[in-house]
Amino acid sequence: MKHPAPQRRAVLGLAAASLLGGFGALPAHALHAPTGAVLLTVGGAIANANGNGAASFDLTLLQKLPQSSFSTRTPWYPTPRKFSGVLLRDLLAGVGAPPGVTIRAVALNDYRVDIPAEEAVRHGALLAYLLDDKPVPVREKGPLMLVYPFDAKPELRTALQYSRAIWQLRRLDLK
């Protein structure tokens, strides 16, 4: 039997809480250390770190957080594509981010953009590591992308929101 979405979310949330030792302000050792290649580092105003005051995530750690997906068109993909990964709200909860932070997202090519966390969470921003159910290579804008559900929320189809949909993401600094 399939669980209704809210129930499934709660179960996935418990799995993430287990991975992180719970959400909220925890000692710096509460987040497990990555064992594979680090795809994302989250630093700045966080309560849960796994080394040097930052939270580093490999693919396995990202996959242990609650998972989500949606299909949408983007300026760089004119036909709808399926993006899968972790909702930004779940990642922020996992690192113990305080309310009201601004996220500075940094790409592999050093492109940087500031994003109000509350706005990104409200609009369902997704940290995607799968595109059409396949890992995203660097040459195809991967391995991580921050994407918004542009088709589901037409008010997001603005130059400002498109600039916040960053690909080849490597770091989030919370301030």
Explain what the structure shows:
It is a single chain. By secondary structure, the protein is of the alpha+beta class. It is globular, with a radius of gyration of 15 Å. The protein has a five-stranded mixed β-sheet. The chain has helices at 5-20, 59-64, 88-94, 117-122, 159-164; strands at residues 40-44, 55-57, 68-74, 77-87, 102-107, 112-116, 126-131, 134-135, 145-147, 169-174. Helices cover 23% and strands 31% of the residues. A hairpin with a 4-residue loop joins strand 5 (102-107) and strand 6. The longest helix is centred in the N-terminal third of the chain and has 16 residues, at 5-20.
- From the N-terminal CA to the C-terminal CA, the straight-line distance is 43 Å
| Spatial arrangement of strands, main beta sheet | 2-1-10-5-6
Mean pLDDT score: 87
Q: Could you spell the SSE succession in H and E letters?
A: HEEHEEHEEHEEEHE
Number of strands: 10
| Class from secondary-structure proportions | alpha+beta
Q: What does the largest sheet look like?
A: 5 strands, mixed
The helix count comes to 5
Residue share in helices? 10-25%
Q: Which strand-content bin applies to the residues? A: 25-35%
Shape: globular
Radius of gyration: 15 Å
Segments where pLDDT lies below 50 for 5+ residues?
Answer: 1-29
